[in-house]
Amino acid sequence: MISQWIEQLRDSDNSQYLIYLLMLLLFAADSQTQLGFAHGFLYAPLLLLASLANKLRLLNFCFYSAMLLIILGIFISPSAPQGFAFGYVLANRIGACICLLLIYLQMRAAIVLQMQQARQQVNMLRQQQQMQLINQLTHFGRWTFDPHNHKLSLSAEAKALLPASSRNRLTISQFSALFHSPYQLALQQLLSDCIDLQQAFDIDCAYRLEDNKTHWLRIVGYPAPDIGTGMQGIVQDVNSAHQISMRLAQQQQQFKLWADSMPIMVWTADSDGNLTFVNQTVTTFTGKAEKELLRDWLDIVHPDERDAVMAHWQHCVQSGDAYSIEFRMRRLDGQYVWHLVKAVAVNDTDGKVEKWLGSAMALGAANKAAPVPPYNTASG
């Protein structure tokens, strides 16, 4: 019954007005009573009532108001009876103020503690919600290793990622055996080193599902000083990332096979203009390895044309304009051959240059067109 009344007092917005009214009634009674009576102590239950509302601002207002009204009562209340020394009146009022101060400090500390606990609960709830959201977005679960029983415990999320595991607590060998054989020894060694040498690790392991499909999981482990010589970590589903990586690798391999089959030179560059790939035609023509060409492709350009070639390339990289120029390249035998070199920018979804696709076609000295003289209208 009392607890329900306290809850109603806390939830009601009108509770503070009730306390204000009671305070005014107490002050009115004090102003009509001769000095010497302990009316100041009557504010103490009112202060306790204000603390039950669990509102720090209301408690502060009631305390300072009660202190002011106790002092004010000395000047507006009727005089004390004859023979009653004023010192007793003053002592009475001072005692009431000290009593209220002690109650106020105690109640204020209790309210502050409750507010801190409420904030902690809110923060914990928010962290739990964030962790649940992160689990949903990143698909990961936690695991811990207890050095006392030498077993690894899986959270519910981690066990969901490892459906082949029938138990939540596994030994290191049992946990490692869940993955494909090429990764079992490596994972078991990393787990042992994490315990013995306090070394963190991060490894992607292949895991076989019930339908015999391969699924990739990321296993991260690090020492946990709070549990002695144990360790803890996460299990994360990275299968989508591996599939994307594999598709990219296949696409790159297909592009390389296509480029190497072309009779002309094919090359690519990044958004900053640095070469990232040249096909086999380029390496055959120049006699240089691909890494050497990617590092310094200007070395095969004729010295007389290097500045102009580089200036035009930098202009296109900065502006995004299509690249088209003729210059000489050094052949394997040391001879320079004219080439028509072109490139176009490949933009991303935001319209920014992502990479460049280029080609170079040999013109040869005989195919190099001579400058055309101006047309003479008089002779024509």
UniProtKB/TrEMBL annotation:
Residues 251-320 form the PAS domain. CDD domains: PAS (cd00130). Keywords: Kinase, Membrane, Phosphoprotein, Transferase, Transmembrane, Transmembrane helix. The keyword Phosphoprotein applies. InterPro entries: PAC, PAS, PAS-like_dom_sf, PAS_fold_3, Sensor_kinase/Photoreceptor. The keyword Membrane applies. Its EC number is 2.7.13.3. PROSITE patterns: PAS. It is an enzyme of class 2 (transferase). It comes from the Bacteria. It catalyses: ATP + protein L-histidine = ADP + protein N-phospho-L-histidine. The chain crosses the membrane at residues 17-46, 58-77, 83-105. It holds the Pfam family PAS_3. This is histidine kinase. It comes from Rheinheimera muenzenbergensis.
